[in-house]
């Protein structure tokens, strides 16, 4: 474990807590894409298949349970909690996210480190996580301005992968033959997808005005 | 963590 990875995990944890806080306290999921949340449930479900078979550390297992639990409960809230479900704008959140999964599963079947069920599922979850934010970013473009909590959620979610990139660089230089191109490239793509959001988020923070995304 | 695995990451 290194400081970059810990910072990444804490930033990731903060992002899901901010979203849960928003949904649980003000009972609203306005501006949040259910499609992205559903994709994250699939990302964690396929990423942590080995949660009961391979034990790395208490920390590792605890964080996996937190990410699985939080992503499932966010989807549950948005789908089945009456008050929250009412604030979900279904008309705008229309990204065909199942079409995102198909290329990811095909790519995972083609490009992976080992052709085993676990490895292909794990690789699929990496590719899917890289694009999982797209429905959310599309929704933001449509609804234009976003509330602070949703903005913070996306900012933290994008930031965590940025910390992971620093972690990969650190591990590359400190651990012999630590080379994982698949992880590095999908992580880089994921972070780049947030780039324009980061730009407008920073602008709104600098000018201290509400976050407005261009049409 | 041994270098050649990254399954220790979340």
From TrEMBL, chain A:
Transmembrane segments: 55-77, 98-115, 121-140, 152-170, 182-202
Highest taxon above the source species: Eukaryota
Any one cellular-component term (Gene Ontology): endoplasmic reticulum membrane
Pfam families named among the record's database cross-references: ER_lumen_recept
Keywords: Endoplasmic reticulum, ER-Golgi transport, Membrane, Protein transport, Receptor, Transmembrane, Transmembrane helix, Transport
MF terms (GO), sorted A to Z: ER retention sequence binding
Keyword Endoplasmic reticulum belongs to the record: yes
InterPro entries reported in the protein's UniProt record: ER_ret_rcpt
Membrane-topology descriptor: Multi-pass membrane protein
GO biological process, one term: protein transport
Record's subcellular location: Endoplasmic reticulum membrane
Family of this protein: Belongs to the ERD2 family.
Stored PANTHER family: ER LUMEN PROTEIN RETAINING RECEPTOR
Annotated protein name in UniProt: ER lumen protein-retaining receptor
Organism: Eutrema salsugineum
